[in-house]
Structure formats: C-alpha cells, structure tokens
C-alpha cells in the first residue's frame, strides 16, 4: 500500500532547529559574511513538501557573530535564505551545545548513562550546563516570537504578517524546554516537537538530574512525535513515572489543563533524488571508474558521522575477525569506511577518532600488502555524487550503530541498489582519467559498471530503521562473532536471495519517504490544533 496524504495547511510553518541549514564564513580582513546552503537531513526531508507549505527556519548559525554585525547578518539571512538566526555567545554555546546537549543528553538518549565514576566526569554534573540549556531555549523562544505571526492583524496587534497563525515545529533534544518557553510568552502559539534520536527507556531517562523539567517543557506542545512506537512508549512511561501523570490513552497526555498528543512518524529519504543522481552521467562515469579500480574484489561500504553511537569500532573489530577466520577473502574484499568528523570539541569524540585511526592502522598493517588495503578510511565528508557512486558499487553496506534514532544510510544504500538501464550507460567514449581508476593502462576504454543484482544490508537491531527494514541481515553489533558471520553471509548470499531481500527493503524505502514523513506530521499537527481533544471540566 502506497501511503498517501495531502497537506492542506495554508499556514506558514516555522521550523525551529538547533542548526540552520546554512554554512557561514566570515572573511577576517573585510568582515564580509558568505552564506551557502548546507542542507542537513532535516532540510532535505522538508524539501519534498516545500511547494505546499511555506517554511521559515529559526536556528543557530553555528558561528560566532560579533554583536555589532548581528542585525545585518539577520536581515541578509532572512532575505536571502528564509532563515532567522538565533545568536548565542561562545560561552553559552560551549555549555549548552557542547555541554548539556552533546555531553549529557546525547549520550543518555543513546543509552550511555552518566558515569558512576570516571576522572573528569564531574563536568557533566555541572549545574551551569543546565542553566545554559534553559537560557539557550529562552533565546530561541525570543527569536521565534520575533518572526511568529499570531494571524491577521487586529487592533491591538498589527505585527502579524500572514493571514493565519504560524505553526511552530520544533526539532530535537536541543530544544525540549522550547514549547514551555513559547507558551509562557504567548499562550496562543501552536507548537509541535519531533525527536530525531531515540527516547530511552524510562529506567535510563530517570537518571537525568533535570528529568522533570524537560518533560514539563515538552508537555506544553500540542503534539510530540517520535520515529518508532518504542520511543513513544518510553516517553509515556517516563511521563507516568517522573511526573506521576496518568497515561491511560496512548494518544497523548493531559498535563496542566492541556492535552499533548503523541504520534509516531518514521522519517525516510527522497528515493527519486537518489535515482536521478544515479542516472546522471557524472555518477555513471564515476561508478565505472570505481568498478575498474575494485575489479575482482568485493566492496563493503560504511558511512557514519564519527560518533560513538555509530559502532565504528564494533564494525572494524568484526571485519578484522572476519579476515582472520576467512584467509581466502584477504585480498578479495575492501571495506570503504567514511567517517565524517563531528562535535570535535567534545572529549569522547576526540578519543573515538583516535581509537578508530588505531584500529584501521592495525588491520591494514596486518592484512595489507603493497597492492591491497583491506580498509579505505575516508575521514572527511564526501560529495553526494561520490557517495551514491560508492553505494551503487558496494556489494554490502554495514550499519552497526549501538543506538540510532533512525539511520538513513540504510535507506540510501537500498535506494542506490536500483539496477540502471543498460541502454544508456552515459559513459560512451570515456576513458580512465587517472592511473588509480585504470585497471590496466591508460589506453583501456572505460567499461560501464554492471551490477550483478542488488547488494545486501547488514543492519544493527539498535537502529530505528531495523524496525521496518525486515529484508536486512539484522545483527547485535556487540556480538563480534555474529557480526563477522553476518559480513560473510552478506558477501555470499545468492543473487536470488539478495533480490528477494532487496524487494522488501525497496518497497518500504520507496513508499515511506521523507515527503511522506513531513506531510503526515504537518497534517497531524494541523488536526490536533483544529480539533483539540475535549478535556473534562474540573
Ligand atoms: C543528529 C541530531 C541532529 C544533529 C546531527 C548532527 O542527527 O539528531 O539534530 O544536527 O546529529 O550533529 P550536530 O551536532 O553537528 O548538529
């Protein structure tokens, strides 16, 4: 069944996220700012419904803007990009973003609890981090109210810019106090919140010193949404245990005389974008080049932010074990692992980067030769075209997250396994461009890459996407032995088995898309605002 839903809202939606989809650079000599669009996952997900809904972004620019330059920067961002910036000073960013968000909430929500004892751990318990989190949320609320329109201008309020009130759609764990902060400023505001990470079991959640204040912040929303039923269920039990509220209906929670609806909205990708990229001349050519480079070898692909939740060491250890147990595969399989640097100011991320370097060095040192490296480690982000070419080429994709809200790499890999129409290879008369891309010598004509059936997906059961991608080989990444065997299985499945699995995966990925996610959320948001549940009169 193809999910269909139509967004009927004529309202503007203010998308509030910690980060704006903008890369900002300042020329130190001329003090001139350049802004490029840098669409992250959220911006890409919203693109599909941008023709039906007008979005205005509110968020942090990810750069320190001197106070004197702020009005001008804000004016340009709004005019050129439809983005309204929230300015935060460096110390606030350090305590709110590096500290409370990335050093306290992020690990806890991914089942890495606060340490019982560990040298240096006391900084995680520093109350100033929490104060900064509240302060940052309050700044976001001020900024939202500066762009929010309450509806048609009235006698008392001539600031409105649109005919109907704006919706405010808040994203992620950075902004859990925002619904409350908004409501304090204007009780009329329609606000929803969506969590892109897991919501942990209440037994983990209740460790958090500020567990009550965060839930109270959220319950001022009209709607809160999660990727999976499990996360919604965990949220309900956290509310019931921490706030002692009744959660007899799974549809939502009554709190403080209001009703907060709860919904499940699994995010997806834009498969058409991947298909079109795959068909492009540049990507076909690149796939052919890479096909020549890796001729005679199987390719495994891993693409992760360099984050401890992604289980990169688990993957490398299992690959090492696989090579140790299967010497006949040494020289015949390469793991291309992309590790995109992230949150490099946080100590755990620095330690992880070092550990991954050591593991890659060790495995390549033991199993590599002059002609062969078992692992190609790319410690930087790579262009979309290059990524799609590698996905298409790869015989299997390894997603080994120890926890992950959803994980869209698994979806992207599935979408990029589509076979290409061989009538138009897009690479006629092309020749290898570099020695690296040539299997023999530079006079060889580049052969189009022909995929022998779709590749296999090895997927951690701890990624949200594992709940829907039943065609994947599901693994527990902590079980190195099981993961090593899954790598072997992925490389040796018959073509028929791969096709059967892929058909299931593809059906899900191509129907539960990013646009479907965004439409369903906005539609539900509108419904709960237009038809709020009746609460019993006290
Ligand atoms: C996760 C979070 C996002 C965040 C992204 C990148 O996907 O859910 O909210 O933007 O990681 O992390 P960063 O800290 O660089 O924004």
Automatic annotation (TrEMBL):
One GO CC annotation: cytosol
GO molecular function terms attached to this record: alpha,alpha-trehalose-phosphate synthase (UDP-forming) activity; trehalose-phosphatase activity
Disordered as annotated region, ranges: 420-447
GO biological process, one term: trehalose biosynthetic process
Record carries keyword Lipid metabolism: no
Keyword annotations from UniProtKB, A to Z: Glycosyltransferase, Transferase
Keyword Transferase: yes
Family note: In the N-terminal section; belongs to the glycosyltransferase 20 family. In the C-terminal section; belongs to the trehalose phosphatase family.
Record's protein name: Alpha,alpha-trehalose-phosphate synthase (UDP-forming)
